[in-house]
Amino acid sequence: MPNPLCFVLMPFGKKAAHSGLLIDFDAVYEELIKPSILQAGLEPLRADEEMSGGIIHKPMFERLILCEYAICDLTTANANVYYELGLRHAVRPCTTMLLFAEGTGQLPFDVAPLRAIPYQLGADGRPLSVIDTQSQLAEKLKASRCANTDSPIYQMVEGFPDIQRLKTDVFRDRVDYSQSMKKQLSLARKSGRDAVAAIETALGKIEDAESAVVIDLFLSYRSVKAWNAMIALVPNMSPPLQATVLVQEQLGLALNRAGRGDEAEQVLNELIQKRGPSSETYGILGRVYKDRWETAVKSGNTILGEGLLVKAIATYTKGFESDWRDAYPGVNAVTLMEIKDPPDTRRSELLPVVTYAVKRRIAAGSPDYWDYATLLELAVLAKNREEASSALANALANVRESWEPETTARNLRLIREARERRGEDVSWQLQIEQACCSTLT
């Protein structure tokens, strides 16, 4: 996985400060800012000067939004830099570092209260004492991963409490892009992978295509189970887009579905290490271990299977604990706890918590297939036949992609088989499972 990108917003060339000093901003970047970014384990990406009629072009907006980290040099109060900083603060609650050259003029009123790192300049306009400033900036970049909100907008305005899984499932509905292309991809998903591949060919150089279209193409391949096509698309994306959490998570999913579980595990573990815990990332990683457990059991290696089952439960549990609002990893943890022989006693404690989480999601409005499918699985686990039937009806009415009920039916089968082995009556559960499977034919 590539290192996270750090976008640098600053003037170019040599610019005069209010004090009259001619500042060499290219030297500031090469001698101070770039080494700090590399020291922090990030990849530097400097803004270019390409403009169209004085308007910042679309790739600039994409970099401002997609790059996980940013450094903004406020020296000389450059209008373009301040405009870009405002956009950055509007879309990113944190991970934006500020710095300025001392003695070159007072910072404007609106940004004066913000914390910024000062650096010194020599008479030649080049940075002085770079080692100390590099270390300070690099440490702030590292610390910003777990830091408090630094955007004044997010500090003062309560933001939408998004859930990790939602950014993938509703991406197409949230992003405004070419309605014509959106329609073409929608039709292609119904036709199959060849139709989706034809659109990729028509787009030409993927790196230059609009990011929203590329993501829709990426997720369209997922819809038609074209896992290898998903994997092949990632290296062709622009570096900022490749590095996004969404792309890396879905790359891990595709690698696992394509039978490349070791690579999927590596991608997802690196993502957790570099970006921190996430309910979605842990949820996909849990699926990697869950698939390995099933493979081990089918091959008769029960000892390995038991270890992998414990690992899958632990991973799903970490995912739920990282965001209690996201029931997806929680229900998978409870399901595997039920399947374990003997069952994990923690399931009785976790089951009502996960149920509460998904019911809150549904009550908040706009529930999707996964909300009802999760409620269905939880009702089966709780042996609540009436609630399971109701949740099944709602789930089937909200199916969007064919693989969704396939995943649910698989989990219901695992629960039923475990209970059958314990001698429990599962006749009504079998009816629920069969009704779910009927949508696959």
Topology at a glance:
Blueprint: E1 5-9, E2 14-16, E3 22-24, H1 25-39, E4 43-46, E5 51-52, E6 55-56, H2 58-66, E7 69-73, H3 79-91, E8 96-101, E9 117-121, E10 127-128, H4 130-143, H5 152-156, H6 166-169, H7 171-174, H8 179-191, H9 193-203, H10 211-223, H11 227-233, H12 239-242, H13 245-257, H14 261-275, H15 279-298, H16 302-322, H17 327-339, H18 347-363, H19 369-381, H20 385-397, H21 403-421, H22 427-437
Parallel strand pairs: 1-4, 1-7, 7-8, 8-9
Antiparallel strand pairs: 2-3, 5-6, 9-10
Quick description:
61% of the residues lie in helices and 8% in strands. The chain has 22 helices and 10 strands. Helix 11 runs antiparallel to helix 13 (245-257).
What attributes characterize this protein structure?
441 residues, alpha/beta, Rossmann fold
Task: Walk me through the structure.
Among the domains are: 5-156, Rossmann fold (3-Layer(aba) Sandwich), CATH 3.40.50; 162-264. The chain has 22 helices and 10 strands. The protein has helices at 25-39, 58-66, 79-91, 130-143, 152-156, 166-169, 171-174, 179-191, 193-203, 211-223, 227-233, 239-242, 245-257, 261-275, 279-298, 302-322, 327-339, 347-363, 369-381, 385-397, 403-421, 427-437, and strands at 5-9, 14-16, 22-24, 43-46, 51-52, 55-56, 69-73, 96-101, 117-121, 127-128. Helix 17 packs antiparallel against helix 18 and helix 20 (385-397) packs parallel to helix 22 (427-437). The chain is elongated and about 85 Å long. Residues 49-55 and 155-161 have low confidence and may be disordered.
